[in-house]
Amino acid sequence: MTNDQKRLLKDSWKKKHKPVYILNKTNVKEMFNWIDNQLSNFPCDHTLKYAEQWLLKNIQPAKLNDIIDELKNMGGYCDCEVVANCYEDYLD
After folding, report:
1. How many helices (DSSP H) and strands (DSSP E) are in the chain?
2. Phi, psi at 83, each rounded to 5°
3. For position 20, what pLDDT does the model report?
4. How far apart (Å, rounded) are the C-alpha atoms in residues 36 and 14?
5. C-alpha dist (Å) from residue 66 to 21, 37, 59
6. What is the pLDDT of residues 12-32, one digit of tens each?
7. What single-letter DSSP state applies at residue 81?
């Protein structure tokens, strides 16, 4: 198998196995900007306080727990970890 064939096969596999997230890219960017702004003014208190505030204002309440689970599965157990660990996963 040539390198080009391997690359095409890998790209095809990635497309088939790419996770589907609840938040769309626009929501992700807005939420991360909100959290980042809050953290620039106030230290992280090791909760998802700012993420939850944004979600409550902008997302259907029925989706809240699923999105929080999604964040935690990516390593976002508090606001600073969400910013550090989740952004690239969401936008990849």
Report:
1. 6, 0
2. -65, -40
3. 77
4. 29
5. 10, 24, 11
6. 766 666 677 888 889 999 999
7. H
Answer for the pair 87, 70: CB distance below 8 angstroms, yes or no.
no
Q: Based on the number of CB atoms within 10 Å of its own CB, is 65 exposed (0-12), middle (13-18) or buried (19 or more)?
A: exposed
pLDDT per residue over 64-92, tens digit each? 999 999 999 999 999 999 999 988 888 76
Structure confidence at residue 91 (pLDDT): 77
Amino acid identity at 78: C
Tell me the Ramachandran region of residue 75: left when phi exceeds 0, alpha when psi lies from -120 to 50, beta otherwise: left
The residue assigned the tokens 């935690």 is 72
> In this predicted model, what pLDDT tens digit does every residue of 28-50 receive, in sequence order?
999 999 999 999 999 999 999 99
Q: Two tokens at 64?
A: 């809240």
Q: Which two structure tokens, joined as six digits, stand for 44?
A: 């992280």
